[in-house]
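Worked problem 6 (solution included).
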Amino acid sequence: MKQQELLAPAGNLEAGYAALFYGADAVYLGLKHFSARATAANFDEEELEEFVAFAHDRGKKVYVAVNTLVEDDELSELLNTLDICSRCRADAVILQDLGAARIVREKYPELEMHASTQMAVHNKEGALALKKIGFSRVVLARELSLKEIKDIASISGLETEAFVHGALCYSYSGMCLFSSLECGRSANRGKCLYPCRAAFAGQSGDKHYFSMKDMALKDDVLKMPVTSLKIEGRKKTALYVAAVTDYYRRILDGKGCDTAREENIKQIFSRPWTEFHLHGKDKTVVEPDFVGHRGLPIGKIEQVFHGRISLHVRHDVARHDGIQIDVPGEEKPFGFSLRSMQVGGESVFEAKSGQEVVMTLPPKAPKPEKGLTVYLASSGKVKGAYDYSRPKRGEFRRRLPIEVKVFVSAHKVTATAAGFSAELKGEFLPALEVQKAENMVYGAFAKTGDTCFEMSKLSIENPERLFVPVSLLNQLRRDLYSAIVTENKKTSLPLIDKPFVADKQSWIIRTDDVNVLKDIDLDTVDEVTVVLTPEFDVGLLKSLPKNKLRLALPALERAPTKYAELVRRLLDGGFRKWEIGNWWGLSMLPTSGIDLSFDGSLYTLNTQAAQAAKDIGAGRVTLSVEDCLNNMQTLAKSAPLPVVMPIYQDAPLFTSAVCIRANPCKNCPQGEKWLKLRHDGKDYLALSKNCQTMLFAERPLCFAAEAAKVPAAFYRVDFVYRHYLPEVAASIWNKVRHFTDVSGCAKGNLVSGRNF
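Solution. The predicted structure is:
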């Protein structure tokens, strides 16, 4: 097998240099726009150009994360970002947005496309679908087991990438709307506020039910047959990147796990570690009592004095190191800088592992208790342990050599290069010193500044030996180089088909429970979409008009083969209308002869994405419930295929492979169970079913009043997940289909503008 790639993160230039110095084969990073880590420092064009040149000089690769969803009026800015990636010769771009993928495929074929983990690839069928679309690599969902990873990695001609270390989200990546709908900051647009890390009142009291430990696969990475082993951490320091990269480089080089280096990482930044679900389901992946950085455990408090504590330390500790102590009832450990400590009654600067240490607490510290764990949260020794070399600024800027010709006549001066020309008119007199005049021309055009050019040769034709002022020469150079740069920039988007104009407005009910329709007059419904499960009773469909039926495959399914027989039977039974919520659905259905709809979880936030969906085979797309009104209006008017606007929905705030139930897995009934949670005055409901957890806000979304302003071809009302009495569903239906809001509902980002 080809040597595996160790892929490290870089939130800034320093982290990138640290990653390469300590053994990364490739680095992934973000630019100022369209990065899923929008709050990281990220790279500007000059930094990217310099870093790519430096990496390529060492035989390393650089991938740029352009992995957020893009609104329609941001497409021109997306072109600028992709231009930068192309000019700087990035090795690949990491994408989530289907429209961005279409633009790259048609305008930037030199850039490889990697499917971001935000595209929620969690099975072989989904990976195969993205390969057909043009992706050369897929970044796998973190939740997968080793067996599932091996299955996907077996696909011929497709690279796979898997996370091996770093922070974990409670939700499947790309399937979380929590921060977006509740806080107005979307994870899909790089602005997550991590509300899942907060404490909730629930079945076990006030706990952090969704706050995950950090992934650390250690030497299990040697069992993973993927192309690339990925370290998370674009918001981490260069020190952290250096330490983690160094740790895994040694493992891949056959030197094994290093305890001292592991301890270093935990002192820099670390929550408790977990292997997540690599070897099967694990209910201990959440850290319910504390959030944030903990550090390296170095002992437990043995005695408490007035303002001091004593313990036998299991690691060297020095004055000014950072110490943290678990304090019951507090969300975060209490931390302080160690100003004073004693060993054997003597004040010391450093204590060795095994010694009994008396530590002086700072004023106003909470009173600690015997038995509490003490952590070494930062260490001066570790901070100095990961030095690295970096080039001088500008040393590795990539320049394209160009030959410049300058022609001077009495009334104009002309410059040409790379098939482009620029000229300035003037009245030019004979030069007093011909050589000095030529030197001025050379000096002017040698100044390539922030451009990507380097003048390799200059030819001057000045038969009359005329003098051109340096100010005009500088302007001529700027005009010439600007013309070359402008021509090489992509200024137009790929063409799309003419907008679809609906001749009428149609109404859809989507449900996972056919019984909910009992009190609804189906003559008022144009279509009924029924969400399938592997155990679905096909006989229930007989109660519904077949010409109005559409069958939906869910957004999440780890084992799609469970649907194969059901889908075959339904296709054989003449059901030709289908909906998919994830890429795996494309692999389950025929490529022709069906009427295919994309659900909102296959995000369509711009017209390029809509055209891409149409090119793939979609007959219509569904707007995302996290979108805003202005963008929905644009898509409804400009998309090249019909759009569906959801106007009533219990939107899952997230979908997780982590079980929230307090009971052990053994003998768990795994059936449906609802749990109540509360945070910051808001009530939530968690649905636990078949080892999966979904979270819902107490208030459903309702966009009925605003929907009248969106000229969609279809409006959709969802009765999915929660159990609705038929009479309640009928009441809701009769309101919203007349564009009347249901009281007590939420609006998400619909009217809040661009914050999401």
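Discussion: The CA atoms of residues 520 and 730 lie 5 Å apart.
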